[in-house]
Amino acid sequence: MTTRITHLIGGRPWEGTSERAGDVHNPATGARTGRVDLASADLVGQAVATAKAAWTGWAGTSLARRAQVLFAFRELLNARKHEIAALITAEHGKVLDDALGEVTRGLEVAEFACGIPHLLKGGFSENVSTRVDVYSIRQPVGVVAVISPFNFPAMVPLWFVPIAIACGNAVILKPSEKDPSAAVAMARLWTEAGLPDGVMNVVHGDKEAVDALLTHPDVRAVSFVGSTPIARYVYETGTAHGKRVQALGGAKNHMLVLPDADLDLTADAAVNAGFGSAGERCMAISALVAVDTIADALVEKIKDRMRKLRTGDGTRGCDMGPLVTGQHRDKVAGYVEAGLAEGASLVVDGRDGDFDGDEDGFWLGPTLFDDVTPGMSIYRDEIFGPVLSVVRVKSYDEGLALINANPYGNGTAIFTNDGGAARRFQNEVEVGMVGINVPIPVPVSHYSFGGWKNSLFGDTHAHGTEGVHFFTRGKVVTSRWLDPSHGGLNLGFPQND
Ligand code: NAD
């Protein structure tokens, strides 16, 4: 039995008939569980028109009222987080605990956005020139699009949507067509929270829908998260059509381990950050850069821990779930072949796993390679699966140079007990998010999330005050109340006095 998953436009499920639809699977069984409608450019146009019509009223709604809606949404999301987590596990495959974790991290952003009256306070300077005051205000952008990836079907939309709405915009969310149900469930909560119909819309689709959003004249801003080639395309196309765009891309995250690190804590962290969510996290550690003197001992400890991991159906209390689709599982398994062919040492082979789930599930167990070198495809490419590569280096300097030479710059971590080395690393590494003895340094919601280099196109990171900045336009008012002393003709450029 398959469920139809359709668009939510103007607060209601779409009642039309779609010419195209995509398959949604339960990755733990391999069964097709849903068919998701894929929007045409025409339908995207209708959604944008609905959002635009709702926008004017919402932009004029008081900050007090907007904050009330945000608080109500926060309460509803908190109350329903287990339902949302179950939808994520059923379509993405990650284990329930982890799914709940992503909803909780998203919830943090809704909590941040509840403070919108404070966040939108402008600056005021009295008497910048005699009896002249200057103040700044920030106003909503208009209709904004959020285009999200499969790997965080709740958290990534939540990085943007609550802030966009709190700032007074209307939103079209285009979630991943691989696991679209969490987005729809969360959009319904906005309606329950009292958000006027049309301010929050969900349109499902693929390239056709994305292209329609990127070129539509009434879409003013685009927040995108996904792989690097598509992020670059979205950035270039959206900006060429006059939109502000923040496009977060792929990653290859390194964890540098110095000889003085606590190797037990480091091994725990490497396993958690390498294999959590089956490595399908943009902040997953995929390259473990170990200084030679401790590499053997560290690899042994990681191998021991990997033996204890249970891979299986995310509803059964396992540590790690399946990959998102059969095609993706095959692609990742192909990298295991490639690593062997390129001469890396395969320490743990995830293809041999014993899986606690249906035999048709998209399984691949945790895999560990040692002696990986920068020229190998398993090092160069973002694999986005449970494959951890150990690269051995002679020193801190060699490790740092390796990380800085990588074209990605999303997250990185250093494991050490040397405060001086850690401080040098935070200063010298060319990466947007840095962990010191923290393997996945995803910033809390009141800071901003974003990488450098090929991991982000645009200059504004997600959520935190940068999110508020992205979803608003600045205006500066210079005011002088009439005063006879300022009369008279003067064609020169005003000078302050
Ligand atoms: P993806 O790039 O395939 O898809 C992302 C979105 O783009 C989806 O909504 C999809 O429908 C759309 N899309 C896909 N192909 C398109 C095309 N040709 N033209 C226009 N739109 C298209 O990414 P994914 O596989 O869903 O997600 C995994 C990727 O996302 C990984 O590379 C991961 O690193 C990255 N990611 C990055 C971050 C970050 O913060 N930097 C966070 C999460 C995921």
In short:
The longest helix is centred in the N-terminal third of the chain and has 19 residues, at 41-59. With 497 residues, the protein is of the alpha/beta class.
Describe this structure in words.
Keywords: NAD, Oxidoreductase. With 497 residues, the protein is of the alpha/beta class. The longest helix has 19 residues, at 41-59. It has 16 helices and 23 strands. The model has no long low-confidence stretch (mean pLDDT 97). The chain binds nicotinamide-adenine-dinucleotide. Nicotinamide-adenine-dinucleotide (NAD) is lined by residues 147-152, 156, 174, 176-177, 206-207, 210, 225-227, 230, 248-251, 282, 382, 384, 410, 451, 455.
- Residues in β-strands, percent: 15-25%
Global geometry = globular
The CATH class of the largest domain, by name, is: Alpha Beta
Which ligands occur here? nicotinamide-adenine-dinucleotide
Number of strands: 23
Domain unit count: 2
> Which fold name fills CATH's third level, the topology of the largest domain?
Aldehyde Dehydrogenase, Chain A, domain 1
Structural class: alpha/beta
The proportion of residues forming helix, as a percent range, comes to: 25-40%
Largest β-sheet summary: 7 strands, mixed
Strand order of the largest sheet: 15-16-17-14-13-19-20
Write the layout of secondary structure elements.
Blueprint: E1 3-5, E2 8-9, E3 12-13, E4 20-26, E5 31-38, H1 41-59, H2 63-79, H3 81-92, H4 96-113, H5 116-119, E6 124-129, E7 132-140, E8 143-147, H6 155-166, E9 170-174, H7 181-192, E10 200-202, H8 207-215, E11 219-225, H9 228-240, E12 244-248, E13 253-257, H10 263-275, E14 285-291, H11 292-307, H12 326-341, E15 345-348, E16 367-370, H13 377-380, E17 387-393, H14 396-405, E18 408-409, E19 411-415, H15 419-428, E20 433-436, E21 452-453, E22 456-457, H16 464-470, E23 472-480
Parallel strand pairs: 1-5, 8-9, 8-11, 9-10, 11-12, 13-14, 13-19, 14-17, 16-17, 19-20
Antiparallel strand pairs: 2-3, 4-5, 6-7, 7-23, 12-22, 15-16, 18-21
EC number: 1.2.1.27
Keywords: NAD, Oxidoreductase
GO molecular function, one term: oxidoreductase activity
